[in-house]
Specification:
Radius of gyration: 15 Å
Helix content: 25-40%
Distance between the termini: 39 Å
Shape: globular
Number of strands: 4
Low-confidence stretches: none
Order of helices and strands: EHHEEEHHHH
Length: about 150
C-alpha cells in the first residue's frame, strides 16, 4: 500500500473527537469481508461501481478499483475519486490492509475526522444486491438492519 495522505494524528483530535474515537469499534474487518469487497470491486471495475456516497458537497471516503489499482479516496459532489489517499496494484496487499482496518482506524483517514468514513456497516451494505450510492438508500438499509422495514 502506498499512502499519499497520512492519517489524522490522534493528538490533533479535540476532546469531543477523542471521546468519539475511543467509542468506535476496534474489531478488524477481517479477511473474509475484505476479500468479498475486493471481489465485488474487481467484478465491476470503474468509479461508477465503487463504494462511495453520492450527494452534494463532501461525500466522505470511497473504495475503488480503477485501471487495475485499488484506491481509498475522498469524494466530492458524488463524482467519484477526488484525492487519492492510498493505493495498491496488489490485490493481496489491499486485502491485507483492509482486513486489518476497523471503524476506529478508518475514522482517521481523509481530511475530516470520522466524516462519512468507511465502516463495517458500509462494507456490508456494499455487498448487498440492492446497493446504491445514495444516502436515502443507505438509510433504508440501516432501517432494514434494525428490523424497522
Amino acid at each position: 500500500m502506498e499512502f499519499k495522505i497520512p492519517k489524522i494524528a490522534i493528538n490533533t483530535l479535540t476532546e469531543k473527537e477523542l471521546t468519539i474515537y475511543k467509542e468506535l469499534d476496534k474489531t478488524p474487518y477481517g479477511e473474509e469481508l475484505a476479500q468479498e469487497v475486493i471481489n465485488k470491486l474487481i467484478s465491476n471495475p470503474g468509479e461508477d461501481n465503487a463504494l462511495y456516497f453520492f450527494h452534494r458537497d463532501y461525500c466522505g471516503l470511497g473504495i475503488f478499483y480503477v485501471d487495475k489499482e485499488f484506491l481509498l479516496a475522498d469524494v466530492y459532489d458524488g463524482w467519484g475519486i477526488n484525492k487519492t489517499i492510498a493505493l495498491s496494484s496488489s490485490q493481496t496487499d489491499f486485502v491485507d490492509w483492509l482486513s486489518q482496518e476497523n471503524d476506529q482506524s478508518m475514522s482517521l483517514y481523509g481530511n475530516q475526522f470520522n466524516n462519512q468514513t468507511i465502516t463495517r456497516i458500509r462494507l456490508e451494505w456494499y455487498l448487498e444486491d440492492d446497493f446504491s450510492h445514495t444516502n436515502s438508500a443507505f438509510c433504508l438499509y440501516l432501517e432494514k438492519r434494525k428490523g424497522r422495514n
